[in-house]
Specification:
By secondary structure, this protein is an alpha+beta fold. It contains 14 helices and 13 strands. The longest helix is centred in the N-terminal third of the chain and has 19 residues. One of its GO terms (molecular function) is catalytic activity. This is Amidase AmiC. Belongs to the amidase family. It comes from Streptomyces pilosus.
Length: about 450
């Protein structure tokens, strides 16, 4: 289902809408009203919205590159005056007293915030589902997951309610919902955007903020505009990427997951067909292996458990009524698993930090690596729900999220783009291109080339 219609938004992406607003063809308030109407229509079926503002914030940066573009902030990031619920029923959230640093950076691009989008509890799950509430549904097929943890943002963007929306990624949470919903999702290099305050206090900072969008140029425009607000001097500037490069790349092809999980036929076809397209465009593609420590999957799961444990210990900072017993089945299971393994923490952290060495070794002689985003295509609602018994759920999670976490641990950039191949029932399949630290420009240029070679399927055309 989609909500594209003949209104102020039309089928414009964020760059197109911002240009129309600058030319005076559309007013920012008119765009916000049109988006709000679309959001209400979409959310009747998708359940993607946590908070919808009656009086959206206008004019935060009237000269920003995305001035007037309606959007949403994910509900794990503070927006002054709105509660931050983290997708959890374990506490009653209170209104944030100030914007998070990334919120200020996001607003600096000129966007108009219409509210906050839903996520699974504390962002732990790759699907946006809950124990006692409606799941976020995929607009391409509402019986299927929209992905997670930025599932609410992805569902709204894919359905046409807003052109782009905030997302963040601690294990795949930008790229996974982008793949599920046929979107572009760039996870930036660690430190490319304003750092997450919580992440900096952890032994391995996993989280990067960004957006999900329907076009490559929207993701590129966001990153360039965000860089105008703050740029990390330790990374090469990205600037505004506006199209493919003439440079021919050496591309590694990684079809089989580092943890040995079998990739399904649709996903394998999507990746191999993309490799063939890149070869036709003049790039060199060759098989590659990432010799990741065999403990990596269990180590990452243990570290995820550490995060759930820390939330259980510090939860009262979010709300005085926080009760860790009300955390969902996945969060509780992760916490209990960690309690049984806590003595392994130093070794887990040490091995995770060493992953950057294996990652760098895999890139010798290569510019980027092409791989699946996920080991299999978008599952139906319920397959990964937190109501599934923990042991079964973890087995399913590890058979699904087999590629994305490496970039979070190493801190490297990675982008999900829609493949030309779709499943028999029309669901999108994403492919992922990963780079060295600071390689966002190369990833965006290659994504532009794929989009120009074969424009991404549009939900409104199906």
């Amino acid at each position: 289902m989609h909500v594209f219609r003949d209104d102020a938004l039309g089928d414009l992406d964020a760059v197109g809408l911002a240009a129309a607003i600058r030319r005076g063809e559309v007013g920012a308030a008119e765009a916000a009203r049109a988006a709000s109407a679309r959001v209400r229509a979409a959310d009747e079926r998708l359940h993607a919205v946590q908070v919808h503002l009656d009086l959206p914030a206008h004019g935060s940066a009237p000269d920003g590159a995305l001035a007037g573009v309606p959007t949403f902030v994910k509900d794990n990031t503070d927006f002054q005056g709105l509660p931050t619920g983290h997708g959890s029923a374990a506490f009653a959230p209170r209104a944030a007293r100030r914007h998070a640093p990334f919120t200020r950076q996001f607003l600096s691009t000129g966007v108009t915030v219409l509210g906050k989008t839903r996520l699974p509890e504390f962002g732990f799950s790759p699907t946006t589902e809950f124990e006692g509430a409606e799941p976020v549904r995929n607009p391409w097929h509402t019986d299927h997951s929209a992905g997670g943890s930025s599932g609410g943002s992805a569902a709204l963007v894919a359905a046409g309610a807003v052109p782009l929306a905030h997302a963040n990624d601690g294990g795949g949470s930008i790229r996974i919902p982008a793949a599920c919903c046929g979107l572009v999702g760039l996870k930036p290099t660690r430190g490319r955007v304003v750092p997450n305050a919580q992440g900096r206090r952890l032994p391995v900072d996993l989280v990067s903020d960004g957006v999900v969008s329907r076009s490559v140029r929207d993701s590129a425009a966001f990153l360039a505009a965000a860089e105008q607000h703050w740029r990390n001097p330790e990374l090469p500037p990205v600037g505004l990427v506006e199209g493919p490069s003439e440079r021919r790349l050496r591309i590694g092809l990684l079809v089989d997951s580092p943890n040995g999980v079998r990739v399904d036929d649709d996903t394998r076809t999507a990746v191999t067909e993309t490799a063939e397209r890149l070869e036709r465009l003049g790039h060199t593609v060759e098989p590659v292996e990432l010799s990741i420590d065999p403990h990596f999957t269990e180590d990452f799961l243990t570290y995820w458990g550490l995060l759930s444990f820390l939330i259980g210990v510090t939860g009262r900072t979010m709300g005085a009524d926080f009760d860790r017993r009300r955390m969902d089945g996945l969060s509780r299971g992760l916490r209990e698993m960690y309690v049984s393994r806590w003595r392994t923490t130093p070794g887990v952290v040490r091995r995770l930090k060493r992953t950057r060495e294996a990652y760098a070794a895999g890139f010798r002689g290569l510019d980027v690596i092409l791989s699946p985003v996920l080991a299999h295509t978008t599952p139906p609602i319920g397959h990964l729900a937190p109501t599934v018994p923990y042991d079964t759920l973890v087995e399913r999670l590890l058979a699904y999220v087999a590629f994305t976490p490496v970039n979070n641990v190493v801190g490297t950039p990675s982008i999900s783009v829609p493949a030309a191949h779709a499943t028999a029932d029309g669901l999108p399949v994403g492919v992922m291109v990963s780079g060295r630290p600071g390689a966002e420009r190369t990833l965006l240029e290659l994504a532009f080339a794929l989009e120009a070679d074969r424009p991404f399927r549009r939900l409104q055309d199906v």
